[in-house]
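Box 3.1 — From sequence to structure: Glyoxylase I family protein
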Amino acid sequence: MLKRIHHTAIIASDYEKSKEFYTEILELKVINETYREERKSYKLDLAIGSAQIELFSFPDPPKRPSMPEARGLRHLCFEVNDIEKAVSWLGKKGVEVEPIRVDPITDKRFTFFKDPDDLPLELYER
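Predicted structure (token representation):
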């Protein structure tokens, strides 16, 4: 029945700042951007491989209780072929990235960085 993840939704506290981060820093392609007057809300659809990220704005969204152990979505992970190259690419764009670690279960390398709302984002080497 279930085939794949279609999208992940993110609510930004500062829509323009997050839009710049995801489109300029992470270089995700814009599929569509819509402003919904009745909700005072933007919805930005971004392509990431065969999936999408939906970036939303809402008036005065509540803060995330804690990270990353708050109930709900723990983090969003991006697969990369070369983690050192990806870390260097982000660093050149001013994004602070944690030291690379090794997953003791899969023996794969990974690391974390944050979006403008401190949403934990992961790089995971193929």
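Summary of the box: Residues 64 and 76 are 15 Å apart (CA to CA).
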